[in-house]
Amino acid sequence: MQKPYPILLDLSDKKVGVVGGGNVAARKIKGLLAVGADVTVVSPELNDKIDADSIHWINSRYAADYLKQMDLVFACTDDFEVNQRIKQEAKPFQLVNNTSNKHNSDFYNVAQINADDFMITISTYGASPSASKQLKAKMLTWLKSQYPDERR
Ligand SMILES: C[C@@]1(CC(=O)O)c2cc3[nH]c(cc4nc(cc5[nH]c(cc(n2)[C@H]1CCC(=O)O)[C@@](C)(CC(=O)O)[C@@H]5CCC(=O)O)C(CC(=O)O)=C4CCC(=O)O)c(CCC(=O)O)c3CC(=O)O
Ligand SMILES: NC(=O)C1=CN([C@@H]2O[C@H](COP(=O)(O)OP(=O)(O)OC[C@H]3O[C@@H](n4cnc5c(N)ncnc54)[C@H](O)[C@@H]3O)[C@@H](O)[C@H]2O)C=CC1
């Protein structure tokens, strides 16, 4: 990704497809449900961190047809080639996050701090998610010292 354009999305009336039902999918799904997205998961299995009642589950391996109606797609399988295909077979208007290949992704997720009246997001342009996580922890410590009453 050369020069990312940062935005905040309202996903409350959007259809989001997640392919794969493992650990990474579970983390992305948690964040998506927290903002009211309508989530469909395509996977032959769901791990125990995914509540099947909170999503639409297509109990199957990936096929392009399943994603036709989706506005946003998260390719979260542990099969690099399948994730590549998802990006390749998406329509030009669909945005795809390929979680196993940052060089083949339309967008990246960010580490986030949500307070009552502001939000802080952190990205390393894809270079180091763990560095984003560490910086977030430092920011949280600093914020707590500056705004002890703020809810986060
Ligand atoms: C490019 C990006 C694309 C995207 O996913 O959007 C991406 C890609 C990859 N992540 C990998 C590994 C891990 N990612 C995490 C965690 C997070 N990853 C997130 C974002 C992003 N990850 C985007 C860039 C973010 C940036 O620019 O900073 C966060 C911030 C947000 C979120 O996921 O919602 C969230 C922390 C949130 C929080 O805690 O607050 C952990 C730690 C953990 O799981 O606890 C690990 C384990 C290893 C480690 O620690 O590094 C691998 C290697 C896979 C492999 O090789 O096996 C790839 C693939 C690649 O690099 O191509
Ligand atoms: N972007 C990120 O934040 C991170 C990305 N990764 C990458 O994410 C990928 C997945 O990692 P985990 O979730 O830990 O793996 P996992 O093994 O927990 O889950 C993989 C899931 O994909 C499903 N799957 C496999 N083939 C499929 C297919 N053809 N169609 C539909 N579903 C299919 C499996 O059934 C399983 O539910 C790996 O490629 C890893 O490199 C890993 C850590 C963080």
Structure overview:
The chain is an alpha/beta fold and 152 residues long. The chain folds into two domains: 15-104, NAD(P)-binding Rossmann-like Domain (Rossmann fold); 111-146. It contains three helices and seven strands; from the N terminus they run βαβββαβββα. The protein has a five-stranded parallel β-sheet with strand order 3-2-1-4-5, with helices on both faces. Ligand SHN binds at residues 27, 31, 97, 99-102, 105, 108-111, 123-126, 129-130, 132-133, 136.
CATH topological fold name of the largest domain: Rossmann fold
Counting DSSP E segments of at least 2 residues, the number of strands comes to: 7
Summed over residues and divided by their number, the pLDDT gives a mean of 95
Please report the first level of CATH classification, the CATH class of the largest domain. Alpha Beta
Morphology: globular
- Strand composition percent: 15-25%
- The domain tally reads 2
Number of helices: 3
Which H/E pattern describes the elements?
EHEEEHEEEH
Report how far apart the termini are.
30 Å
Q: Which CATH-level-2 architecture of the largest domain?
A: 3-Layer(aba) Sandwich
Bound molecules: ligand SHN, 1,4-dihydronicotinamide adenine dinucleotide
- Rg over C-alpha atoms, rounded to the nearest angstrom: 16 Å
CATH superfamily of the largest domain: NAD(P)-binding Rossmann-like Domain
Query: Order of strands in the sheet with the most strands?
Result: 3-2-1-4-5
Q: Uncertain segments of ≥5 residues (pLDDT<50)?
A: none
**Percentage of residues assigned to helices:** 25-40%
What class do helices, strands and sheet pairing give? alpha/beta
- Largest sheet data: 5 strands, parallel
